[in-house]
Amino acid sequence: MIQSRHPIPEPTPKRIIPDHAPDTTHPAVRAAIDRAISEHEEHWRDTYLQDRARRIEDSHLTVAEWAMLTLAVLSLLVIICMVGYAVAAILTHGGGQ
Predict the structure, then answer these.
(1) Which residues neighbour 61 within 8 Å (Cβ) at sequence distance 6 or greater?
(2) What are phi and psi for residue 5, nearest 5 degrees?
(3) Taking all residues of the chain, what is their mean pLDDT, rounded to a whole number?
(4) pTM score, two decimals?
(5) What is the Cα–Cα distance from 69 to 75, expressed in whole angstroms?
(6) In this structure, how many other beta carbons lie within 10 angstroms of the beta carbon of residue 32?
(7) Torsion sign, CA atoms 90, 93, 94, 97
């Protein structure tokens, strides 16, 4: 094994928090951080609730849409009844013989 005259330096761990970071244990700093977090959460909650209310409001059908849906269902019912009447007539009268 080769020996070096200069020892290999130990790697220094990287600091995640820089030296100039504020002391978060100070009560005033902690209160400011808590206040900022609560304001952010309140803003997010208000924005989320407003967006959700808008989506729910947009999902409701208007009167015109309900009328068109009702007419479509009634039209399908009339068609089904007409087909049923025609099938019954064919079965009872033997197809016009």
Answers:
(1) 69
(2) -75, -30
(3) 79
(4) 0.39
(5) 10
(6) 13
(7) negative
